[in-house]
Amino acid sequence: MPAPPPPPPRPPPRPPPRTPPSPQPPQAPRPGNRKAPHGVLEVDWPFFGEMCRALALKIFRDYDPEVVIGIARAGVIPGAVVASILQRDFASMAITRTETGGRPVVIAGPTRLVTGRRVLVVDETCDTGATMKLALNAVRELKPAAVKTAVSFRTGEFRPDFYALETDNFIILPWDREVIIDGEIVMRPDYAAKLKELGG
Q1: CA nearest neighbour of 158 among 136, 127, 135
Q2: 36-40, 125-129, 148-152, 184-188: lowest mean pLDDT where?
Q3: CB within 8 A of 117, min separation 6: which ones?
Q4: What pLDDT does residue 139 have?
Q5: Contacts of 172 (CB under 8 A, 6+ apart)
Q6: Quick check: bond before 73 cis, omega within 30?
Q7: Is the pLDDT of residue 175 over 80?
Q8: 33-89: per-residue pLDDT in tens?
Q9: What kind and span of H or E run contains 170?
Q10: Under DSSP, is residue 37 helix (H, G, I), strand (E, B) or coil?
Q11: By C-alpha distance, which of 36, 37, 108 is closest to 75?
Q12: Helical H runs in 63-165?
């Protein structure tokens, strides 16, 4: 009588399923410990509009400015939009740096409309707060009833009263992404260089 066939080999035991690690919440940058940009945040016009609406709503809930001051150049754009949403008077002041890395200086001060009124000073971003502090001092010299600050992006140690988004990414803004050089519209050179550096 022939021997029965050997039993088929048993499959190797399956390893136990791996439990994926629970996601960790993103860590906000610590004040005084600013990191170099690790990515790129390209802001388009629809996203910018949503940010302005969110920022205006935060301001409306906690503060009632009578005058909104935008810091030229880039702060004028979110400042004007926020002022329009809040239906408040808008004016601008100009602060610039005479050289790369230099101290900011006021080249056109705030309007005297701020005297005795509640004022909101708006810029597009703040890192060390040097520009915003200079703007605050210029406004306070004209004796407003109150003054608070707002930015689209908080990027460093300075904490404004209101901000739409906190990020340590390199920010590309929609209104100056492209510029005219030698008669041609091209991506702004420093934006293009940063994108290349960060692999964007």
Answers
A1: 127
A2: 36-40
A3: 66, 67, 144, 145
A4: 98
A5: 40, 41, 42, 43, 191, 195
A6: yes
A7: yes
A8: 444 556 899 999 999 999 999 999 999 999 999 999 999 989 999 999 999 999 999
A9: strand 170-172
A10: coil
A11: 108
A12: 76-86, 130-140
- From residue 144, alpha-carbon distances to 14, 62, 105 in Å are 72, 18, 21
Q: How far apart are CA 166 and CA 34, in angstroms?
A: 12
Q: Which two tokens stand for residue 37?
A: 């940009």
Distance CA(167)–CA(179), nearest Å, equals: 25
Q: How far apart are CA 191 and CA 189, in angstroms?
A: 5
Residue 42: exposure state from Cβ atoms within 10 A (0-12, 13-18, ≥19): middle
The Cα 99–Cα 2 span in angstroms is 98
Q: Which residues contact 4 (CB under 8 A, 6 or more apart)?
A: none
Say if residue 177 is preceded by a cis peptide, omega within 30 of 0.
Answer: no
pLDDT digits (tens, 9 = 90+) for 3-19: 556 655 565 555 554 54
Which residue type, as a one-letter code, is found at position 106?
A: V
Residue length of the chain: 200
In the chain, the largest separation of any two C-alpha atoms, in whole Å, equals 114
